[in-house]
């Protein structure tokens, strides 16, 4: 017997008016992104900082050397970005002044805030025409029987493997700077909150896809007894000067990981499919001793959690971004548990969630 049809309730007039406003908001979200990009390219956050942390529109127009006639237009951009939380607006006086928020603090030139490097490259990469055009092609991509991501399908190149550099060296540099900013952000918080549990007692550590060694050097500074090795692709390692603190190894994590008591893999796996994550983690498992001998893999990555509050939307946006630009995805704890098991690990602990990041100890 067919299920009884559910009676539909027509929205009220007030609900439809709110729905229309929400429709406008969703359709025009890209305007916020473009206004954000505009402010970053103009240097508004750094200019507010240089003016003592608060600036009026005339102050900004003068400091940025903008034509005075653009002041009314800048007002509209700043009003939107203040509403979106990028800046804070002080309306107490006759003249509105704008201040930095935690978002804009992350965009200051030559200022690392509590271990968070400048995140400007992330804004420029995410709002580049390459990403926007790939996202614009989603509906076409869904109708194609292709394995490639929308980005690769459209542009014919894959991020971070060198093919982008051959096509457009300038934007490739932006993407690589964005990757470094993303990977190195927030690690000092991890050290403060979880450093003892993660690294106390370790004698050796391999940082898988450790880039220029920023994370490994931070570990050695906090725990001098640990001998750290950084593994990354030859095109990365060849450009890193020897520092006498960290050992650098050029290689491929799909083929081999330098042996150590523990392997760290931070903000890497979300770029890869589940199948590739299993392959990578299996190589990490080969590189470490038994659990009884202190062997473990430390995974730091996004953990999607519907109870995350305001962070949850960012987690989901990052997930769709991975779908558009790579073959990876963001995962909830159940997803991570399944991948750890398939890679041959016996157990794991989610030590802490710091913002959108989860910090895992994964045991052989």
Automatic annotation (TrEMBL):
Family matches, as InterPro entries: COMT-like (IPR016461), COMT_C (IPR001077), COMT_dimerisation (IPR012967), SAM-dependent_MTases_sf (IPR029063), WH-like_DNA-bd_sf (IPR036388), WH_DNA-bd_sf (IPR036390)
Coiled coil ranges: none
Domain O-methyltransferase C-terminal per the UniProt entry, residue ranges: 138-346
Active site residues of this protein: 270 (proton acceptor)
GO BP term, pick one: methylation
Keywords: Methyltransferase, S-adenosyl-L-methionine, Transferase
Xref: PROSITE patterns: SAM_OMT_II
Annotated ranges, domain O-methyltransferase dimerisation: 24-109
GO MF entry, a single one: S-adenosylmethionine-dependent methyltransferase activity
SUPFAM superfamilies: S-adenosyl-L-methionine-dependent methyltransferases, Winged helix' DNA-binding domain
Similarity-based family: Belongs to the class I-like SAM-binding methyltransferase superfamily. Cation-independent O-methyltransferase family. COMT subfamily.
PANTHER family registered for this protein in UniProt: O-METHYLTRANSFERASE (PTHR11746)
Protein name: O-methyltransferase ZRP4
Lineage: Eukaryota, Viridiplantae, Streptophyta, Embryophyta, Tracheophyta
Encoding gene per record: LOC123086879
